[in-house]
Amino acid sequence: MKLPHRPSEPQLRRAEALSGPRPGAAPPHPRLRLLDWRPIGKGAVIGRARVLLRNGLEISDIGLFAKDGRIWAHLPAQQQRDGNGRPITDDRGKSKYVSSIRWSTKELQDGFSRALIDVLREQFPDALDGVR
To answer: How many CA within 13 A on the CB side of residue 129?
Structure first.
């Protein structure tokens, strides 16, 4: 007697993603979890965050910025330096920064910013009060 085919775990996850979770199943994992928040409030910098992504990647020193009515998150970046170790600046005298990691599309970057801002607002409702 042949036993009925039993779907593999990945097949079950794909089917669940298409049809929604099973009744009574645990809610889906959030896109990210906020592990730490440090308000700064200096210039355009609102603060720094540390997050854990659903895939297990932990990212520290994520900057949250606000300017001209817009709020966004930026992955960690280092100040650019010349061959003698001096900071590189632009034509306005502002330091230039470069990140060793980046999102492959603007849509992914924007989605990450929205997700982090949403989680920040959930866990620290007054963190963005007065931010313009």
So the answer is: 5
User: What pTM was estimated for this model as a whole?
Assistant: 0.69
For residue 25, what are the contacts with CB-CB under 8 A and spacing of at least 6?
16
CATH node for 30-123: 3.30.1120
Q: Which two tokens stand for residue 78?
A: 């280092």
How many angstroms separate the CA atoms of 124 and 49, rounded? 12
Residue-wise pLDDT for 9-39, tens only, equals 776 666 655 555 555 554 454 679 999 999 9
Element (H, E) at 9: helix 9-19
Neighbours of 25 (CB within 10 A): 9
Note whether 53 and 31 are within 8 A (CB).
yes
